[in-house]
Amino acid sequence: MKNKSRSAQEVLRANQQNAHSVTVLTETGNRLMDQGEHKQAQECFQAALDLLLTANIAQDKRTAITHYNLARAHAALGEIESAIAHYRSGIEIRPRFPEANNNLGMLLNDQGQFEQAIVHFKTVIGVEPLFAAAHYGLGIAYQNLDDTTTAAICYQKAITLKPDFFASWVNLGLICYQIGSAEVAVHCYNEAIGLCPGNAELYFQLGLALMALTRFADAARAFTKALEFEPWYKEAKDALEEAMFFAIAPPTEEEKKSA
Fold it and tell me: Could you tell me the pTM of the whole model?
């Protein structure tokens, strides 16, 4: 009985040591990720996973999180296939893992696998409806599938949840401009500029929306601002010349109809 008791204690002690090592490796890996040392972080997370698998802890929450961390490191290193594989492994253990589903959805968007991405974003939203990034990712997927109405709804939801969501403002502005809602596009671009005031492309897009509203003087100011940040922006220079021409001599009603 003593031998069995000692054996059980030894197993318990070994498991505790493993758990401590996994914790230390995970904390070190996360710190290295924050420092941009992605390769070293990947090695820490891999060592943590190896310890878990050696201890036959393959279906534990800790293992799912370790797969998630390892996927983040692989993604940061540009090793996309490995990142996708580890996200899938983490999700296989914890199917409703919000962060893993969201990150996998983003990678699938990047790979052009939009239908698959939608499944993962909807999983996230089903678990955490207030997860703004998932609504944004869902918007990207629908926008690329030419469902701009649904995409716009997704971006609006992301902005409602996170008013400073820069990319959602930009994408919503693009959609509104494309469907002829130039006034809403102007609002979106102004919000985005407030979050990123030194972006020449935003001022150019704002100028285009203002042109569509025949606000030529305002458009000229927007194009001028774009050129302040990017002096060699040829499209902005050409658009500025056009805006200034129309600001001086606005088109007649007949010219507007024929345009």
Answer: 0.87
